[in-house]
């Protein structure tokens, strides 16, 4: 699957799912003073950005140490994205744990895993190892994704009131459907590359 700058950005936005995470984000900040919330948003988005950048830059070295191939990572990434997509389409009960937070959230659960979750880490690692010569494009796609996430979280209250619960659920399931197709494409690409390598 050839990945352009635009498709990489869209993929990362779908995976980080800022719109779908608004209810959990609002719940996580319930006990934070209103004047502190903007600072918390900036801090958590910055931490998530640094975490994902780290995976992007040191992903190739990690694969070499673990003796993992590009094909195995593509298949694993496809499986992870597929599972994430299924959760977006068929959300289960008790999947949100923000109500257990006491005080101001720090790193967990907003930065990790809400924004920089396993699927996002696997995706940036996959992009950087498959085409390292396009690193500037991947950094740009990640930066744009984090800016979108930042804006969505800054205006989360207004967006939630404007769209309502039903519209947000419908949007999340639509994004899950798109992500399902992307995950299947990634999985098939990994399997095809492995078969070609054997042949």
UniProtKB/TrEMBL annotation:
Say which family it is in. Answer: Belongs to the UPF0056 (MarC) family.
Q: Name the source's superkingdom.
A: Bacteria
Keywords (A to Z) from UniProt = Cell membrane, Membrane, Transmembrane, Transmembrane helix
* Topology within the bilayer: Multi-pass membrane protein
InterPro entries on file: Multi_antbiot-R_MarC
TM helices/strands, residue ranges: 6-29, 41-63, 75-94, 106-126, 138-155, 176-195
Is Transit peptide set as a keyword in this record?
A: no
Native organism is: Vogesella amnigena
Q: Where in the cell is it found?
A: Cell membrane
Q: What is this protein called?
A: UPF0056 membrane protein
């Amino acid at each position: 699957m050839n990945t352009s700058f635009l498709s990489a950005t869209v993929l990362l936005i779908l995976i980080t799912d800022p719109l779908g995470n608004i209810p959990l984000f609002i719940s996580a900040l319930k006990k934070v003073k209103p004047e502190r919330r903007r600072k918390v948003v900036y801090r958590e988005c910055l931490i998530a950005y640094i975490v994902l950048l780290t995976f992007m830059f040191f992903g190739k070295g990690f694969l070499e140490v673990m003796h993992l191939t590009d094909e195995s990572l593509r298949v694993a990434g496809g499986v992870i994205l597929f599972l994430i997509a299924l959760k977006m389409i068929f959300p289960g009960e008790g999947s949100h744990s923000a109500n257990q937070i006491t005080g101001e959230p720090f790193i967990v659960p907003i930065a990790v895993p809400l924004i920089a979750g396993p699927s996002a880490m696997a995706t940036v690692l996959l992009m950087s190892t498959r085409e390292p010569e396009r690193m500037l494009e991947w950094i740009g796609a990640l930066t744009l994704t984090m800016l979108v996430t930042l804006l969505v979280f800054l205006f989360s209250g207004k967006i939630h009131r404007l769209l309502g619960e039903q519209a947000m659920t419908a949007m999340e399931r639509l994004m899950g459907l798109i992500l399902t197709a992307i995950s299947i494409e990634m999985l098939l690409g990994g399997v095809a590359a492995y078969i070609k390598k054997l042949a």
